[in-house]
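It is worth pausing here to work through a concrete case rather than discussing structure prediction in the abstract. The textbook approach is simple: state the sequence, then state the predicted structure, then interpret. We follow exactly that order.
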Amino acid sequence: MLSLRRLGLSHALRRTMAECTKPVEQSISGKLSAEFQPAHLEIINESYMHNVPKGAETHFRVVVVSDKFDGMPLLKRHRSVQHALKTELQTGVHALSIEAKTPKQWTESGHAIQSSPSCMGGFGK
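Step two, the predicted structure:
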């Protein structure tokens, strides 16, 4: 397989082409950035941890740190993230784990992200 670098493509074009191979992840990033103007945002594709085809974009964990969450109950934070990603959740994203924190909570947590549990095979095995 030829590398994109060997083809003489610019760094920006290689990056753009790589991003095109992750359309759902890019969509999630764009929507959460626009909606929450986060101080910190991580989109982690956890599909590889599940019984899905290689390269799938079906299982995600998002970490959103935003001032917009100040004074907002946790349930409302989660609902607002789910609302922002309504289309993705209706068109292929099977699972979404959400960590929605204020900047103060993020700092107090030591910037720690909770680890995801092992896949149970979809049937609680």
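Step three, interpretation. Confidence is low (pLDDT under 50) at residues 1-7, 9-17. Strands lie at 40-45, 59-65, 95-101.
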